[in-house]
Amino acid sequence: MKTELSRRGFLKGAGAALAFSTFAPVSWANPVADGRAVLTAGRMGPMLCELRNGKLVATTNALKQTVPNSLQTTGPDQVYTQARVKYPMVRKGFLANPENPEGTRGDDEFVRISWDEAYNLIHRQHMRIRKTYGPASIFAGSYGWRSSGILHKAQTLLQRYMSMAGGYSGHLGDYSTGAAQVIMPHVVGSVEVYEQQTTYPVVLAHSDVVVLWGLNPINTLKIAWTSTDCAGLEFFHDLKKSGKRVIAIDPIRSETVEFFGDRVEWVAPHPMTDVAMMLGIAHALVDKNLHDQAFLARYTTGYDRFEDYLLGKDDGIPKTPQWAEKICGVPAAQLETLAEVFAAQRTMLMAGWGMQRQQYGEQRHWMLVTLAAMLGQIGLPGGGFGLSYHYSNGGNPTRDAGVLPAISASINGGSSAGNDWAVSGAVQSFPVARIVEALENPGGEYHHNGETRTFPDIRMIWWAGGGNFTHHQDTNRLIRAWQKPELVVISEPYWTAAAKHADIVLPITTSFERNDMTMTGDYSNQHLVPMKQVVPPQWEARHDFDVFADMAERLKAGGHDVYTEGKTEMEWLYEFYKTAQQSGRAARVPMPNFDTFWVNNQLIEMNENEKAEKFVRYASFREDPVLNPLGTPSGRIEIYSRTIEGFGLEDCPPHPAWLAPTEYTGSAKPGELQLMTAHAAHRLHSQFNYSHLRDEYAIANREPIWINTEDAQQRGIQTGDQVRAFNSRGQVLVGAFVTDRIKQGSVCIHEGAWPDLDKKTGICKNGGANVLTLDIPSSRLANGCAGNSALVSIEKYTGPDLPLTAFDPPANG
Ligand SMILES: Nc1nc2c(c(=O)[nH]1)N[C@H]1C(S)=C(S)[C@@H](COP(=O)(O)OP(=O)(O)OC[C@H]3O[C@@H](n4cnc5c(=O)[nH]c(N)nc54)[C@H](O)[C@@H]3O)O[C@H]1N2
Ligand SMILES: Nc1nc2c(c(=O)[nH]1)N[C@H]1C(S)=C(S)[C@@H](COP(=O)(O)OP(=O)(O)OC[C@H]3O[C@@H](n4cnc5c(=O)[nH]c(N)nc54)[C@H](O)[C@@H]3O)O[C@H]1N2
Ligand SMILES: [Mo]
User: Fold this and answer.
1) Atom of ligand 1 lying closest to residue 472 CA
2) Which residues bind Mo-bis(molybdopterin guanine dinucleotide) (predicted)?
3) Which residues surround ligand 3, an ion (CB under 5 A)?
4) How far apart are CA 539 and CA 320, in angstroms?
5) Model confidence over 88-121: pLDDT tens digits?
6) Terminus of the chain with fewer CB atoms < 10 Å: N or C?
7) Domain assignment present for 469
8) Which string of DSSP letters, residue by residue, matches 21-78?
9) Are residues 503 and 373 in the same domain?
10) Of 584, 616, 647, which residue sits at a domain end?
11) Does the Cβ of 788 fall within 6 Å of ligand 1?
12) Annotated binding residue 462
């Protein structure tokens, strides 16, 4: 499928073509003049930027698309929101006594300082802390969805500087798939969640039934890690038109379920109970003799041990559909029907990740793979399972492409040769979602994927490119732990809650204020897109790249040029492009010279590859499991894992199993509801919470809470009411959205609203979901984020009016 540029993009682009024959770095970097739409890109895809009187006034999609993507309209908000950090700022109590700071983080005034003062202040304390406690005391594993780009990569740039300084503590894994990415290698020999899927065209051609198991692609495909190629949303549009049977299994009637309308069957289990539901289906398969025994014998190991558990030979509890119904709330008869439907037709089980971002999250995808193995369709076109159809266009076929490299965290290239920098990367790392545990328990031992490890003693934190105050669980516990380090620096374009809880805040440019490039499609490499600077840096904002280069100069004279390898922003891009051109030549993609490319300001579309379009995951394994074994110890799909057996973990047994979570519907006390924290339609996590899109979802000027009609009636709550949601960990103020679109017994507050804690009452005025969630690991196998685990109570809010201050900069800010 060839991408069509939207009409506007095509006309503007064609008119803008200029000849530029000489190497002219100065002209490259000039902001584009008024009156011409500038092509740039973000996570939400290639975008055209309209300027008026030097101001960015609109951003729109640059690729033709059928399903609208609201996030593409946020450009002007991103640049001009009142929430921008304008100047370097320091906390008063810190400035007064940097070695032994006064006051409390998050509870102090900020003072404006110059960039030089900020650099010097950070440098002196960084050196003192590093000398006293060693490199492991410096946490630079700063996690998060910084903006797109191959040069302006906040975390990498931070780590590059910290490497020059002598090393740091880093992180393992991510919040997204913490559980799945650790369990899957034990089961199928690869992380699975970040891999090319059986392609969208193959699914359209061969699947009869598509199951969206906890999958909300109409939201989640609005973005990709690089930049979306927009193919995923087009696929779901085509799937809807195809007339295939689509079954959505989700406690929420999500945007995707609504999108499919009467083309979809919606099945709503209680959250966190999918393993029980799948066991019920698996039991029905065995009962009806519908499981594919030949497949299980040839391609899997340990099925017999699992079947003993399934049939209750181990524990006396057969996992029948009737047993499952009591746990998951889906009628037994429906589970039996699902078993029959899945077995009778070519079925693709597409699974999302929300259901593994939970306590015992490892079990979900392990059980899903087991179910798919019992159906025997793994490796057939359009059959089996897929764990990345909803993310970064995982089913868009890989193109023959000129692929861009990116800046690296270590200094290489010419300039590091022959210098005496003691470059060192992460000296140790811990699972990313265990940060609060690490702060609380320095030196403490913990288990991770078969190893005993120890937490570092963190004394300094520098966070660049992540929203840890929104992304981490149990915000009040985080705030307490956050008092422990001696220095917290935040590099941010915005006054997020994290910035408000820092000692030093550095104003950073948005991607609209700098030059960069990106590929689209994490798997497809469909386009190479220029990310041209659209407006000058706002206020005193600087690029992360320049900040860390300046800091490197303070490490030692000449450090700046070692950091930059002597290259300017545009020179880096020029070299990256040249590398892409080399692979482009091998792939026979015509790519103009850099200066032409840059001045033309048009994307380059890569070549389609017929073979890649027909890619079927596990086809070669299916063809010959001996010649093409999986990367597991047995070379097969491990339904029972001896490796995991050897770890002896109570919270991750050696075959997929139902483990009752600590906080879920089944353990709720009267009145308690289960909290879900799905990803929002109109945000990327916390990003754009301040934007005009907030008007589309805010209720009573608060983050909405989805409440089932029955649950709301019992509590006298109506749509539009302010509601207090609370548990022992905290309380939030939210706006009621009363609906039948959520399973009774559950509520949903989408993750990502900026914490905005009222000093007097402790209520989060902006409905930050993580104020309520449990900060526990998925299990000691993977230590993944379990943010989708919590019970809450709700009541109509009748207290005093609490004005929202989430997006206000601090006084003087
Ligand atoms: N309860 C619950 N919690 C969750 C989840 C959940 O489902 N439920 N989901 C989890 C998941 S999957 C994830 S990935 C995380 C997401 O967590 P994050 O990725 O940390 O969330 P973002 O809001 O995208 O944070 C990115 C931050 O980087 C800043 N930024 C953008 N560009 C730049 C730049 O160029 N330089 C610098 N210095 N800063 C920049 C933005 O302003 C923003 O504050 O949240 C996790 N938390
Ligand atoms: N617009 C937008 N797109 C995004 C993001 C964003 O913040 N905004 N974040 C990006 C990132 S970093 C990631 S990791 C991905 C996240 O992708 P996912 O993790 O897949 O997204 P979620 O919204 O957490 O969950 C998807 C669906 O699972 C359902 N669900 C939750 N718990 C359960 C359960 O126990 N059982 C079942 N059956 N269903 C359940 C939710 O209701 C939701 O509809 O999305 C990416 N795309
Ligand atoms: Mo994520």
Assistant:
1) 47
2) 145, 357, 471, 514, 544, 770
3) 176
4) 64
5) 999 999 999 999 999 999 999 999 999 999 999 9
6) N
7) yes
8) -S--HHHHHSPPPTTSPEEEEETTEEEEEEEETTEEEEEEESB--SS--GGGG-HHHH
9) no
10) 647
11) yes
12) no
